[in-house]
Structure to design on (353 residues):
């Protein structure tokens, strides 16, 4: 009887696999990843060998049977090289793309981040040591980089095709009666019917001969409480410029956010420059934020690197001023490395595939 059961199970598995083969064959999928490990020595802390935002993902296209239009999917998961365990979900979306543009839904970046926010991408360590203006929390403290314009759930977004060097993107967040899983780090106590559109974000960029200019604006009004009204009502806008010329890469951005609940504003800017020859390079970055009735916060990063095919080794140092370090509470902007919120020397090794 056990043998019969085994035969039936194997037969069922074979049939299921044969039925799945046409679907797999019609998909063009790519497995990718970024494994990142570093040695960090932060002031007032011992040296630590730590993973920093390693991830693995899958992206691809699916035949929809339509002329010049394909289905698309994307999934990315964090992981830890020290524990060997998977971390939280980073990105997840499905959609369609064609000559008319790209439409996606799921957990996505918004234009204020895609077009403006990530000016430190030229630092080869990929450490997010820049400090940014605060915006609506996205699952954690917004002053620590978890803003509601990066990896935002419940997002529907459209990106235009390239229009003579120009591109634009518009995104909306449809979170229902949000309970804090999308905006904020606490649950609404007495939720009632919310706005249909909880947040929106739009922006555009234009590229010509190595120069890219971009601007974006976003706003969120959500988490309606029957007692106190809306708990979140904020906006963010910014502009950026990037320029590539031979071995030099330069980037700059300016951002301003406003919290309408407590009537406060924050203004900040960031600069990053990189020079590289034959895989050897150096970068210098600076960022600053000034909040209402607070001291100006600053971060300076210097780094040298060696690129080896799909791998890179980087040696650097990040210095925060006393206002950015503060008392090392949850609101400090000195995010990295390792959330210690202090000056840090580092040696990192990163592999891309």
């Amino acid at each position: 009887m056990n043998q019969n059961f085994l035969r039936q199970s194997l037969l069922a598995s074979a049939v299921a696999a044969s039925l799945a083969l046409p679907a797999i064959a019609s998909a063009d999928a790519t497995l990718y990843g970024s494994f990142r490990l570093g040695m960090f020595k932060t002031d007032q802390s011992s040296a630590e060998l730590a993973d920093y935002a390693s991830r693995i993902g899958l992206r691809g296209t699916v035949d929809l049977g339509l002329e010049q239009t394909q289905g698309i999917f994307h999934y990315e998961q964090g992981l830890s090289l020290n524990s060997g365990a998977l971390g939280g979900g980073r990105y997840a979306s499905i959609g369609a793309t064609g000559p008319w543009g790209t439409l996606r839904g799921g957990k996505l970046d918004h234009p204020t981040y895609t077009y403006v926010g990530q000016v430190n991408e030229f630092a080869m360590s990929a450490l997010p040591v820049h400090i940014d203006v605060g915006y609506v929390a996205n699952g954690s403290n917004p002053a620590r980089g978890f803003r509601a314009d990066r990896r935002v759930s419940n997002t529907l977004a459209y990106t235009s095709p390239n229009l003579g060097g120009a591109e634009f993107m518009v995104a909306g967040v449809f979170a229902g009666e949000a309970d804090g899983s999308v905006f904020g780090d606490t649950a609404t106590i007495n939720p009632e019917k919310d706005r249909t559109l909880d947040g929106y974000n739009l922006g555009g960029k234009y590229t010509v001969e190595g120069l890219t200019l971009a601007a974006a604006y976003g706003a969120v009004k959500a988490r309606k409480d029957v007692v106190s009204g809306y708990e979140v009502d904020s906006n963010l806008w910014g502009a950026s410029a990037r320029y590539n010329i031979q071995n030099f890469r330069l980037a700059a951005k300016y951002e301003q956010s406003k919290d309408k609940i407590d009537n406060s504003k924050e203004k900040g800017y960031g600069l990053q420059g990189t020079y590289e020859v034959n895989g050897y390079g150096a970068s210098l970055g600076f960022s600053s934020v000034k909040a209402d009735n607070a001291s100006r916060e600053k971060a300076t990063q210097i780094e040298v690197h060696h690129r080896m095919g799909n791998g890179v080794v980087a040696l650097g140092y990040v210095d925060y001023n006393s206002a950015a370090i503060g008392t090392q509470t949850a609101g400090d902007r000195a995010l990295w490395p390792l959330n210690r919120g202090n000056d840090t020397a580092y040696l990192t090794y990163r592999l891309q595939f």
